[in-house]
Specification:
With about 300 residues, the protein is an alpha/beta fold. It contains 10 helices and 8 strands. Strand 3, helix 2 and strand 4 form a beta-alpha-beta unit.
Length: about 300
């Protein structure tokens, strides 16, 4: 595997970064890296997590591109280079995830790529990808959900946390930040350790934020938290899980400090055509940006899965 910083800290020479206009006119920043036609295997649409940017995954994109895949991604509206949904550009705000699902559905419909089409989602991107599949607005040949946000993890438990979030949303500006720093409140774990055990890969995101400061995002709003609790709870209770026939590979970090791995394992068990790969304490939340043994195992599993299910 190529783990050198130049791969992680440079836009591929033959890739493009542009903007795509959603149906309501919103401009979303997109990334496209086309495979050579002679060796093309199909297309991968990779969607990041909350407050994420696609630059953080260039190393994994290179792995798939070298294998013959065209790789595409776009920043969710409200983050990265796709504008903001609050007056404070530091706050990740959303009143509803429905516009994000609509963006994904429209993009998927317009995405011009030949061959098998694969949908991948990390964290919040995994939740939204699964929700879009359950709602029938995207129908990939195969999907990969990486540390998917199928439940939130917090210091007081999800039920009490959701009640608190709803109360706080009602008591003031719903778009105000839910906390000031770190990836979750009341955490004694450093932000790096919550995300990855690989310091150099962790520092990659700071490199990109220095290059383009406006793509950086901070904590979520109270409204975003309420929507995240409600949407993931509804998803776990969705009877359509039992009939979703799309082949799905789910990668879960059992020691994840940001999303609830138990919820992901439970959902995987209800999907009729899902494979589950679990990691122990060797992996934090960002599995594809972990230390080499973790990342290599994850990429190998994805390669094997795609070879079988996206031909």
């Amino acid at each position: 595997m190529n783990t050198h910083a130049p791969t992680r800290r440079a836009i591929p020479a033959d890739a493009t970064i542009a903007h795509w206009r959603a149906r309501d006119g919103w401009q979303l920043r997109r990334f496209d890296w086309r495979a050579a036609k002679a060796g093309s295997r199909g297309g991968i649409l990779f969607q990041t997590g909350r407050a994420d940017v696609f630059e953080k995954y260039f190393e994994s994109f290179a792995h798939w591109h070298d294998a013959g895949w065209s790789v595409t991604a776009f920043d969710w509206r409200g983050q990265g280079g796709s504008g903001r949904l609050s007056a404070d550009p530091h706050v990740g705000h959303a009143d509803s995830f429905a516009p994000l699902i609509a963006d994904l559905a429209a993009f998927w419909q317009q995405w011009d790529v030949a061959g098998p089409r694969v949908l991948m989602g990390h964290s919040m991107g995994g939740h939204l990808a699964l929700r879009a599949m359950l709602e029938g607005v995207v129908k990939p040949d195969a999907a990969v959900l990486i540390a998917p946000m199928l439940g939130l993890k917090g210091p007081i438990g999800s039920r009490l946390a959701e009640r608190l979030a709803r109360l706080m949303r009602a008591l003031g500006d719903p778009a105000r930040p839910a906390w000031k720093a770190n990836e979750r409140p009341a955490s004694l774990t450093s932000r790096q350790k919550l995300l990855t055990n690989h310091p150099e890969r962790y520092s990659d995101e700071h490199y990109w934020y220095e290059q383009t400061p406006e793509i950086r995002l901070g904590p979520p709003s109270w409204s975003w938290l309420v929507e995240a609790f409600a949407s993931t709870r509804a998803q776990r209770e969705d009877p359509r899980l039992a009939t979703l026939g799309i082949p799905i590979l789910m990668l879960v970090a059992d020691a994840d400090g940001l999303v609830d791995p138990r919820a992901a394992v439970e959902v995987a068990g209800r999907l009729p055509n899902a494979e589950l790969l679990r990691f122990g304490h060797e992996s934090a939340h960002e599995i594809l940006r972990e230390v080499d043994p973790v990342r290599d195992r994850a990429l190998a599993a994805i390669d094997t899965f795609l070879a079988t299910n996206a031909r």
